[in-house]
# Entry
Amino acid sequence: MRVRPRSVTFGLYAFGLVWAIVIIAPFLWLVLLSIKTRLDAFANPPKLFFTPTFEAYFGVFGDSAFLHAIKNSIIVSVGAVLLSLLVAIPATYGLRNLRGPIRKNSLLAILLIRMVPGMVYLLPYFVVYNRLGVLDTHFGLMLVHMIFNVPLIIWMLTPIWSSIPRELTEAAKIDGATPWETLILVDLPLLKGGILASSILAFIFSWNEFLFALILTRSEVVTLPVAIVNFLAFEGTEWGKIAAASVFIVGPAVAFGFLVRRYMISGLASGSVKG
# Structure
């Protein structure tokens, strides 16, 4: 067994530390900006020591429109994840039973749907939604998020599902289990790590999505990323409120991912298994 040289180990740790600082620095700057006064925020040179104030947070959470946007983001994000799982899990179950070029081409087609830029879907969905009267509705926004969430979940679950021994499924069939019973009682318990990992990524996408939420909503279903635009006032940009609102948007996604990181890592690692 080859022993890694200390210089290489030191270099890897140093690179990891620098990369962590590069990633954390913008978020830290955002947090500091959210607790600075307007005068401190634009001081030159920047102030490292200042008296913190939570005026921006009080202003943000005292805004009824922003509170309404929080509710909309929760409804849309959770609903989009649940609907995506209802579609993606049976679809992955069906793909597992396919063989040869049909399975490969089906997965490539699903991946292509996910890779197409969102702008391509925007105009057709806007026209259809406008005619059907579903603009500015929770369900309409959930539906368009499924375009990106369903392929993501399918591609994460497919290799995990392929790694599950088929003997378990065959044993369930011999015992008289129906396909749905096999799916629910045998496969899903073994997929919980992958389902949780893909659900986290799908939730983060829906929580942060801006383009569709901007165009396909008006006033009733405005989500948090769009609500931040309201702080770009004609009289001047309220940078403190924008920073406070941004911290709130990023915070739950980071905290949620941190709390369930063990399941997320295991799910992603399982997804790397070649089936």
In short: The two ends are 29 Å apart (CA to CA).
